[in-house]
Design a protein that fits this description.
Layout lengths: L10 H15 L6 H15 L13 H8 L1
Helix pairs in contact: 1-2
Length: 68
């Protein structure tokens, strides 16, 4: 049996990925630094918030997939 590998991203990784995702849908890349700053701040903030407080925003089918 193979153990699950847990990948943990840091705040910078999350900010880069969210910025890249954002730019896929918004072609204007003139505000990349601002976008990254906002996503980095959001990522840092979410690290201090109790995960249970934003559970209500995640659809049940996604939660079930994550449990399995």
């Amino acid at each position: 049996m193979v153990d699950k590998i847990v990948v943990q991203r840091n705040d910078r990784d999350v900010a880069v990925e969210l910025t890249q995702l954002h730019l896929q849908y918004e072609a204007d890349g003139s505000n990349v630094a601002e976008l990254y700053s906002r996503y980095y701040a959001l990522s840092r903030y979410m690290g201090y918030v109790d995960p249970g407080s934003y559970r209500k925003f995640i659809p049940d089918e996604i939660v079930e997939k994550l449990k399995s």
